[in-house]
User: Which sequence fits this backbone?
């Protein structure tokens, strides 16, 4: 049998090795009836005891959404989504919000432990403040007190609306407006919870802020909304991890993340996305439609996105930077893996508005099985962006010959002094590389994992240490059985 | 250690490359297999190492008492069979040192030995580098990426020294090397000579044999071993070329 047929056979015979995080937590949940209309929007807002302005804001979003149609320009093949069949609110039933971890439902805490984020341990060992979003309500926010001594606000979005309404009102929707796109409008209408962080002027956040998202209840879309503000000269590094239990039907996830960096501020936002990808035949899995955008409002500010996308049946995601401030910097580092029937259409937008703005895009796409992986990126240089610079590098790696890799760069330059570079490569894991590793004693899967990790190294090194280790393991798990 | 009996192998397109190889290699011995281009030398190395793309249609290979051909390539490696590649493969982004430690620990696990931690590994690396006179910078780079031809071959010899195989097969490791690199390869091979280890050097030229004295020399031609002898055979070949040997066979 030749090497390539063997590889193909393995790819064909590959079975979903049992999604590691496919357990369901049995908790009494309070759930809205399925469907989406103004009543549901009012129900959500009332449940969350929101002020009138926010209800109006949501309703405006809903009315905008109703007039919009789902975008179809992405290279994704998906069944029509019945938005009236989904449930838009599900909250674990609890009395008053937990005052400390001791009051949190132990079942929930066990769920987090299975995910590898035992809150207590993290508290004690890692010094990571975790705002854990379980379905729709933020369960526990750790380290809040220590952070508050520095004036840092880190809490659930719901709490922020109650405790810091002025800040929320000032910034919410200023980077991603309610009517920005179909999925952002949907999120704006029904967002349930999410994380909020504010770093005051001149403060360097002493720990990594972290959120774990997890979709639990069946047929529940998760619509979290994250708002992060770094005031002048501040610095924050934010980690976001996502998992979802294994289910047969597709679940919708439409999140919005807004980042605002003022003068000389820096935001580093890292994501490891491991939503349930569906089985080998493409049944089930998360539909992940996410709008992430950061505004570099002030001069010399910097926003850096790093993402490792291994899960979801569908990924539609373009973390972007709007470089308004002069000499501001945007970065996008991405690893996206598609195996089996997974599809990803992901990339970034770098909008150069201020003078001397710089952006870097480094995208690594890996396709195995029948996975389809598209990089879609826009680099736009506005007339005022004198001496703007961009460098884009897109590398694709193919495993087997039933997968696809696509690169769709859009470049719009309206200033003659700009310098924009785009490089793209496509390669296959060669039989020679595999044999070389095997001849040194590595089995085929370890060999693939080693080669893929090497391919992604430049991106992985952008991740905070503890995340990088997790990401490496995830890469290996995602590619299990992809090669013989 | 290695018993090859009547080995026939062909490419997937049906062309028969090996046409009845008989070869016996004992522990402690160094064998040289010489022959003109296209005689089947590299095919023999590939078949022994378990590379895909060849079909063994006749014959047997016994290695340490086991049926070598029944073992997958990675298991052969973990059982102590090492192949120094004629064309070492580049693996971008993978640190050479990390690669080697992963390989060594895979083999150690297989033997039921504890894995080496970074410190233990580094101590062994330093000792071996010194023996072979190789610079440490080679180890901090990605596997074979941007290496010169000589550096790639040095790296192969270094891996051999680190992995301490039972049977090492060197596939034209001497080709394309300048005299300094050649001497380094020879030094590596000579240092690896051990009573419990066998070394098979596949080479086109007699040059390497000036620095490494083989116990046995074989001439491979047309997919068969047509002549075997001691090191004087190599010198004879150097004088008269491969042609007359074929006639003699």
Assistant:
């Amino acid at each position: 049998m030749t090497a390539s047929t063997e590889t193909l056979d393995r790819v064909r015979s590959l079975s979903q090795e049992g999604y590691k995080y496919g357990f369901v937590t049995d908790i009494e949940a309070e759930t809205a009836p399925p469907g989406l209309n103004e009543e549901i929007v009012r129900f959500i807002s009332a449940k969350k005891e929101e002020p009138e302005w926010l209800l109006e804001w949501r309703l405006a979003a809903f009315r905008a959404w109703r007039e919009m149609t789902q975008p179809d320009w992405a290279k994704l093949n998906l069944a029509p989504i019945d938005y009236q069949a989904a449930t838009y609110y599900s909250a674990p039933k609890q009395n008053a919000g937990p005052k400390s971890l001791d009051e949190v439902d132990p079942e929930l805490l066990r769920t987090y432990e299975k995910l590898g984020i035992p809150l207590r341990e993290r508290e004690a060992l890692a010094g990571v403040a975790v705002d854990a979003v379980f379905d729709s309500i933020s369960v526990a926010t750790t380290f809040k007190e220590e952070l508050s001594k520095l004036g840092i606000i880190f809490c659930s979005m719901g709490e922020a609306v109650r405790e810091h309404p002025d800040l929320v009102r000032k910034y919410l929707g200023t980077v991603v407006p309610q009517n920005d796109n179909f999925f952002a409008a949907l999120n704006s209408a029904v967002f349930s919870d999410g994380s909020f962080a504010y770093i005051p002027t001149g403060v360097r956040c002493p720990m990594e802020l972290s959120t774990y998202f997890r979709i639990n209840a069946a047929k529940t879309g998760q619509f979290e909304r994250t708002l992060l503000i770094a005031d002048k000269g501040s610095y924050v590094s934010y980690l976001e991890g996502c998992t979802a239990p294994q289910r047969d039907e597709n679940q919708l996830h439409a999140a919005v993340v807004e980042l605002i960096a003022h003068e000389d501020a820096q935001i580093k936002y890292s994501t490891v996305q491991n939503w349930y990808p569906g089985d080998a035949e493409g049944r089930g899995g998360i539909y992940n439609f996410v709008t992430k955008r950061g505004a570099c409002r002030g001069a010399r500010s910097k926003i850096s996105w790093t993402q490792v996308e291994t899960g979801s049946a569908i990924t539609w995601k373009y973390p972007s930077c709007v470089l308004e401030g002069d000499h501001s910097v945007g970065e996008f580092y991405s690893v996206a893996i598609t195996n089996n029937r997974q599809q990803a259409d992901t990339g970034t937008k770098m909008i150069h508005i201020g003078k001397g703005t710089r952006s870097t895009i480094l995208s690594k796409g890996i396709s195995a099985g029948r996975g389809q992986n598209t990089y879609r990126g826009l680099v736009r240089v506005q007339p005022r962006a004198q001496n703007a610079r961009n460098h884009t590098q897109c590398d694709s790696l193919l495993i087997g010959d039933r997968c696809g890799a696509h690169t769709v760069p859009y470049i719009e330059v309206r200033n003659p002094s700009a310098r924009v570079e785009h490089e793209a490569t496509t390669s296959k894991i060669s039989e020679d590389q595999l044999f070389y590793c095997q001849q040194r004693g590595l089995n085929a899967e370890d060999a693939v994992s080693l080669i893929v990790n090497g391919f992604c190294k430049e991106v992985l090194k952008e991740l905070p240490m503890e995340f990088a280790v997790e990401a490496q393991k995830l890469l290996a798990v995602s590619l299990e059985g992809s090669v013989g | 250690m290695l018993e090859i009996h009547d080995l026939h192998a062909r490419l997937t397109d049906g062309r028969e490359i090996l046409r009845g190889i008989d070869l016996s290699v004992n522990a402690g011995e160094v064998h040289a297999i010489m022959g003109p281009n296209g005689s089947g030398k590299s095919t023999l190395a590939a078949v022994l190492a378990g590379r895909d793309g060849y079909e063994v249609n006749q014959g047997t290979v016994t290695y340490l008492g086991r049926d070598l051909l029944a073992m997958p390539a990675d298991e052969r490696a973990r059982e102590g069979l090492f192949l120094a590649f004629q064309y070492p493969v580049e693996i971008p982004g993978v640190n050479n040192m990390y690669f080697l430690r992963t390989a060594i620990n895979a083999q150690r696990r297989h033997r039921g030995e504890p894995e080496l931690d970074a410190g233990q590994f580094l101590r062994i690396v330093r000792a071996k580098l010194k023996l072979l006179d190789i610079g440490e910078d080679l180890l901090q780079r990605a596997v074979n990426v941007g290496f010169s031809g000589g550096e790639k071959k040095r790296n192969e010899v270094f891996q051999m020294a680190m992995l301490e195989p039972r049977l090492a097969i060197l596939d034209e490791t001497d080709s394309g090397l300048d005299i300094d690199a050649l001497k380094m390869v020879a030094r590596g091979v000579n240092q690896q000579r051990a009573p419990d280890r066998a070394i098979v050097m596949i080479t086109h030229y007699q040059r390497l044999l000036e620095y490494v004295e083989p116990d046995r020399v074989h001439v491979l031609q047309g997919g068969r071993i047509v002549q075997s002898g001691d090191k004087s055979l190599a010198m004879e070949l150097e004088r008269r070329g491969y042609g007359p040997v074929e006639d003699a066979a």
The longest strand of chain B covers residues 2-11.
